[in-house]
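Continuing from yesterday's entry. The apo prediction looked reasonable, so today I'm repeating it with fe (ii) ion included to see how the binding region is handled. Same sequence as before; SMILES copied from the compound registry.
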Amino acid sequence: MPEHFDLPAQDTDRVFRIGLLTDIHFGNDSLRARQELAFCRMDSLGLRLLCLMGDIVDNALSDNYETARRLVNKLNTPMLALTGNHEVFPLSLPVEACLANFRTGMGRPRHYAWRYFDPYLFVFLGIDQREPHLPKTRRDTGTSEQQLQWLRATLQAHAQTPTVIVSHAPLENTVEDSDHFPLAASSQLYDILGEAPQVFLWLSGHTHLPDVHCGESLKTAVALGSGCTFVHVPPVADYYVHVIKGDRQFFRGGEDLQTRLLTCHPDRIEVQTYDILANALQPMVTVRPTIRRASAA
Ligand SMILES: [Fe+2]
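Holo prediction written out below.
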């Protein structure tokens, strides 16, 4: 049964919540009411951190970021933003110029980062490269060599720390349709993951898929043999493309507005679906670290 909670959940040193919002698309005025409600509700939950998982704006232009800042500046919750493919649009603007607009627009020093919240390391990956030579579905989801090197080094430096990765687009074959909308560097990222058994949870958005499509539950949480669980985060935007028998079809979503919350305990992370309209939480999946931090043993 959904859990209604009008007051912020208890946030002690040992238990805390991290909230996620993805595919917000500031600049698309038809989404204004959804954007405002999503920010207002997330800000009322007493979160340790609100992560904006990319496609925060429709285009990396100053007017889009101005719209974003109107809500971001009102947040009382600590916020961290990473880049999606729309943060490196329009194609008429060089990627470096787009990323500079992101840094200025969101007030962030960089488009990827890590944070440590005892006992977990959270790694946030941003899209920062175009791949014009690749098929259309992965031209926009590149990861620079510089960022891949940073990721390798970060994971090596925290090899004993249970780790969660958040990225805009999914790794190939990890959530419904992710083979059609994957991170372009999926194969390199799988190699990096293979050397980082401490990564036990990976969250992504980008596909815009809701949890239920035409009455049918979609595959939005996948545990691969590696010990890592991959979870899809539904969008703030209300439209999506779903690949059906090889064809990409456009759908307008219903009234649903859902996202995910992570309730982090010392020994587990409870991934929950947060129904923003109903202000209700529903359990989704509980994941446990594949390693325990040495100092916490
Ligand atoms: Fe996207």
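Comparison notes:
- The helical segments are 32-43, 62-72, 95-106, 145-157, 186-194.
- The longest helix spans residues 145-157.
Will overlay with the apo model tomorrow.
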